[in-house]
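Researcher: Please generate the 3D structure of the following complex. Treat every line as part of one assembly.
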Amino acid sequence: MSAVLLVKAATAGPDDVDALKLLAAEGLGVDDVIAVAAKTEGNGCVNDFSRTLGARAWHDVLPAAAVTVMSGGTEGVLSPHATLVVRAPWRTGLRGASASTPPIPKAVLGRRPQVDAVARTVGEAVADAGLRPQDVHLVLVKCPLLTSEDVAACRAAGTEPVTTDTYESMARSRSAAALGVALALGERTGEEVDAALAAGGWDAWSGVASCSSGAEIADCQVLVLGSDPAGGPLRMAHTVLHDAIDAGAVLSLLAELGAGPAGEGAEVVHAFAKAEAAPDGLVRGRRHTMLTDSDLHSTRHARAAVGGLLAGLVGDPCLYVSGGAENQGPPGGGPLALVVRASS
Amino acid sequence: MSAVLLVKAATAGPDDVDALKLLAAEGLGVDDVIAVAAKTEGNGCVNDFSRTLGARAWHDVLPAAAVTVMSGGTEGVLSPHATLVVRAPWRTGLRGASASTPPIPKAVLGRRPQVDAVARTVGEAVADAGLRPQDVHLVLVKCPLLTSEDVAACRAAGTEPVTTDTYESMARSRSAAALGVALALGERTGEEVDAALAAGGWDAWSGVASCSSGAEIADCQVLVLGSDPAGGPLRMAHTVLHDAIDAGAVLSLLAELGAGPAGEGAEVVHAFAKAEAAPDGLVRGRRHTMLTDSDLHSTRHARAAVGGLLAGLVGDPCLYVSGGAENQGPPGGGPLALVVRASS
Amino acid sequence: MSAVLLVKAATAGPDDVDALKLLAAEGLGVDDVIAVAAKTEGNGCVNDFSRTLGARAWHDVLPAAAVTVMSGGTEGVLSPHATLVVRAPWRTGLRGASASTPPIPKAVLGRRPQVDAVARTVGEAVADAGLRPQDVHLVLVKCPLLTSEDVAACRAAGTEPVTTDTYESMARSRSAAALGVALALGERTGEEVDAALAAGGWDAWSGVASCSSGAEIADCQVLVLGSDPAGGPLRMAHTVLHDAIDAGAVLSLLAELGAGPAGEGAEVVHAFAKAEAAPDGLVRGRRHTMLTDSDLHSTRHARAAVGGLLAGLVGDPCLYVSGGAENQGPPGGGPLALVVRASS
Amino acid sequence: MSAVLLVKAATAGPDDVDALKLLAAEGLGVDDVIAVAAKTEGNGCVNDFSRTLGARAWHDVLPAAAVTVMSGGTEGVLSPHATLVVRAPWRTGLRGASASTPPIPKAVLGRRPQVDAVARTVGEAVADAGLRPQDVHLVLVKCPLLTSEDVAACRAAGTEPVTTDTYESMARSRSAAALGVALALGERTGEEVDAALAAGGWDAWSGVASCSSGAEIADCQVLVLGSDPAGGPLRMAHTVLHDAIDAGAVLSLLAELGAGPAGEGAEVVHAFAKAEAAPDGLVRGRRHTMLTDSDLHSTRHARAAVGGLLAGLVGDPCLYVSGGAENQGPPGGGPLALVVRASS
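Model: Done. Output below.
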């Protein structure tokens, strides 16, 4: 059995590991932690050292096997926090597991071998968690990127990397990781994956993948969460937002879980969402300016906007909203997973 | 009678005045335009030249007396657009009027004389529109700021300006304008205004003021909008958001006007809102990072977040969300006005 | 004869055209102006509306045939200013002419037809100015870019544009324009141009081209400046900076013109330079961070740094330093042209 | 005797401590390190986590008493690097010492008690280094700032902090630290310090102080460097730049040390400079835009510009250029210290 609990705590900075202090009250210890997923207050882009700082701080205190998913960017109302995923020896309603791929060679970043490495690791984690594919609601993947040095090293070794733009490499890595999730869960076939990689578009997507990339890691780290069919006090479900303002999908998912838009009903424990600027430059047919703003990257825009919508409907700014939803939900939208505590 | 119509059009750039082409279909002409309120795609801060460009383009085509309120900043999903306020010779359900103060001497910017100048002009516009104070739902004010040159000129003339920080001067000007609106409509007394100016806090607020500042003007330009007690196809109402994620207030106002969160019921024609980073650094008790982000000004964060929430609930990204809500609604929140077209 | 004078004036904003007032003292009039080259205080990137505003203001007052080169970005010590290039009926020491290509179809932007259009127009301007190729010291080109709408329109018409990244399109347009200059002046052959376009690298460069791109124009506008072999009070020369800190090249060029690093000797009237982040990520073997800074585009970094060096050595912050030196001088460096007034 | 050596190494990231590997070749060990002064690749402003990350990495490997001065911001050509200050048992030509104040209570940050704490600690370090005041060429001080939480805590405790603006608090802390240096070295009297604090201006300055502030520390950490009157292979001297483009002062200081602008003569080992936007908005009478750029903080502009000038004249981008020169050199300028290795 792989029952897990979510322990969420606001953080005072990227290196704040005080969430650990909450474990004792649950009768749990640091050795029970299988993952930490945190929002840190950097820009979420190439030069976001808040992620590196957070990863270092958590590595210093967590078991070696624990996965650390640091997602930079708390734009707008989003609030920095850390969520521990902790094994619990009782039925919680949630099941989960974490795992890591071997280091991804820089030459294959964004390419089929990265997809396959992620797919294998996701498959192992799903099995380890004792989850059926249909009960999986979230697969968080933290994946590497290309730095200027990586690009130079690839070329020196005679390989052209998938892109020479360091920022673009973050997108390509997220894309490959998302396709790996889709492949592992049967959402997409290998042929569809190859076609998606060749076309470069985002039409082949996973409905549960949430991938973020950062300079602080060399492998892909995976966290799988899903519902225990046997039930329990926590309930989880997911949907996809079809665009960045899909309030209808949020309200439906809340209703499905017995929670209301103004805090009534079941208490929302956490929300995990992806956000991105629609690649066609439009939201509901209206021009957005996220892709032509040279002062502010589009992922920062998108997190702020989707974070505002979700925080309003959920009533809590401590949400995991991550930018860059390539192949994660439909273009311009993204997956959304909610966890609630059933009212007693 | 001062019935007005709102003619809203997406814009291809700050200098796009094609909204004028929509007037003919309504049987109206450019001479009927009393104001234009536009969102332009700049940063909404000191060096936002999209506002200057927009103002210049509109000045070239509108009647001299028309007020041009250019509000910079279409962060996140917000979409650049222009809204013409046009006198109509039939009952529309809305009444409105515009007016301008004399130029505000830089030495009194942010001080009581600016408050009084705005109050007088608002009073005149309310009377001109034939509105009772309780029927006023929105007072847009565009007001000047201090540049580095203004600061130097003040000091050369022997006066210490209200602030020497050009960005801060935008807030002080908005604050004085909002207090002028509150004074004109009886929301606050002169004593309360003096106390608010002395204290520097934002606790004395107007529930209908929406003020923005820009380098392109020297006077304060005022647009008043409200409900025609005799009714008509358009209906208007207002409320205040108590914080940046006050979905409950939005949903209540939509319900009051017969519109639903997913586009059902009455069609939402427009929304006018103010947004700001809560000055105590918290949203619902959670730390936000808008005030400590040295890469991105807090007004940009706040517009993106509130714009995301409103666009989701209203179903349209062409909304007027303006940053910097000092004395406009409660600290961290802001006024919200909606206009709907009653379903027939 | 095509003698020209440079009339440089600090500007109070992008729409400040007061430089015209200086013409009378020279006995010249607005009809004598063949071009204006200005530095405006925007970000110099895709969403720089200071350029659009400046272009609009100058178009309203200059002869229709005059070329307006608005270059955004006055980072660091660089100071906003406008330089009029004015035909003078006496020997000044400088010769110049301006001309424009037809509108560049968006489908060929960054491709050989843009190169050829620029080359033809440069050739005409050089002939018109009565310059020999070896006396040309500066060819300013203002060229268009691709917006999100342009990309969509290209694809709708069945053509894949040279890039779908709006920011990248600025570089591709500058690159094609620079190759056009090199082709016109015999610096490169047509075969070398084709090879450079195919390879995408910046090794085939012009030593006198200074190209900038902006959303406000659809054609390429060209200004050619060079030395009158017959001499005169103004003297001009050019060199290339081999990297962004090539103080040696600046000092040599100053010495060649009889000017010293601390303001002694001949008075420096103007400097025109290009700046860019070295594409290999290194300056003198040291890592720079301009290409991995997701908060600040590399062209802003580069203008600030090169502007600091030049302003120090020239003793004046009103310099024309433009970002993005693709195919303009060696990679990481760029052309530099100086104009001095010989001491009498 | 307190002879010290400077060991400078380029860094691959803020947490790169490989500079330590260079010690063995000098016959020195990690226990000999008294300080590290590094430039890290963050924004150098409030939310610069590259400093926190660097400080954490160095604390993990250096002796507890070693001072870590992490200065964020490598704009333009500036290159991330770390400089170890190491005690050497032979005559190097340099003397130095480091020391720290007790934690500075947040309520007195930017006020006289911070000045006095710094002055006492500087005095002790100067004595410890065996330096005469006239031989001191550089006093690096790293000092704390106010976060939003600090401001709230001060007010909760009944004290109004020196400012409520977190960014402004960085300037006030640097200012108090610089006045402490000036007081310790006899550059300013206590009365002048009080007057400077009361006036808030920057006219009372130190010619050797280089202060930077960061969220990662609570005390003020001091490093003093100066010339050994007995001489040695390293030579040090200092001057002040009177504005941000004072090439003349740089060239004079280079000449004084026997080094030339193009790398001839003595090898420049290191340069330490402060940079800031002139508070009057002018450089040599020309308007700069650093203080009205709402997208980019003025300290980032200033570091880029001054870094470009110095890197050009010194021939190396691995320079310590720190932003915010309040009371450190004349307004708009700043102190500059150079270390060269005499040619043999």
